[in-house]
Design brief:
Largest sheet: 8 strands, mixed
Radius of gyration: 24 Å
Strand order of the largest sheet: 1-2-5-4-6-7-8-9
CATH architecture of the largest domain: 3-Layer(aba) Sandwich
Structural class: alpha/beta
Helix content: 40-55%
Order of helices and strands: HHHHEEEEHHEHEHEHHEHEHE
CATH class of the largest domain: Alpha Beta
Distance between the termini: 70 Å
Amino acid sequence: MTGAGPVRAAEVMELTGWPFLAVLCACSIALITVTMMLWNRWPARWALVLRLGCLLLLMITGAAVSADVVNREFGFYASFDDLLGRLPPVAVTHCPGGNDGATPGLVRGRIERVRLAGSDSGISREALVYLPATYASPAGVHRRFPVIELFHGYPGGPGNWQRHLGLTAVLDQEIAAGCMPPVIVVVPTDNDPGHDGECTDAVRGRRNETYLAVDVPTQISARYRVMAATRSWAAMGYSTGGFCAVNTSFHHPAQYAAAASLSGYFTPVTDASTGDLYRGRPGVRQWNDPQWQAARHHTDVPLYVVAGRADPEAQRAIEHLKAVARGHPPITTGESPAGGHNFSVWAKACPTAFEWLAAHLPPATPLLTPPHPGR
């Protein structure tokens, strides 16, 4: 019995546990009390410094309490190891020919920043485009490539895929190791600043889905050597972007061969960040409810879904979707990395998700006509 004491204490003082929040609150109350009692009793020559120190500590403890409450609500970090990035890597079964280390002679792709203006939606936004090293090679200039479209979360932007998830490095490594074929990847801006449109065509509002599923492919096809075949695109997103990827692919099955969701959800949200996107129209809301669509077998787009082991809300969303879908559409559940609702988890899940998506895409095809200069 005595050997279990330290373990039990560590479990009790978890980052999302009530005891930890109680300790933070108790420290704040104690600091407020001490500050009030000693405010006019400090030695004169130290009074200003000590008062400023107490005010600074009060602000720090207040911020810590607020951060813990927000973290408990959204499950960003499940433990101190998760917060500090000390979680073990997820076990990944690598593809044949793949390896765990750096690939010798790795040739790197490149990222381009572009503005994509949509004629159908009337929306114009910034985007990132990844071009694999093969794209500019002597053999690649005579080929067209499949595309993976990535969706970011809210709040956020396309740069999060590069800064926090190492997009270029992951794709270069996966392609060089033979784990996936060369693909073009586009990361459009999928919402307006300060407003979460959930990538939908809002009733009497912004036509985000039209922009992402119609205008973006049109613009990318006009600028790059992209395959014109049906189902030559795939979609993936994290958090809100996971909802976007699944919902958009369900609505455009001739465009998207598959979709992946990292810690996403599958029923639409209505809150202060979204506003009323559907204006009380139940039919429009159901159309934008992937779980409702899956329950009625309205789609056959295969899904890859994964969430952190300490992200109960996302885990429940996956279980509910699988329960109602009953195998149609087919749903593959990835191995859950340790951690909560954060970039560390999504970074661990990305390589396998990319491999899974690429396996559903057709290979690059030869050009029927010579490439246009600049493309």
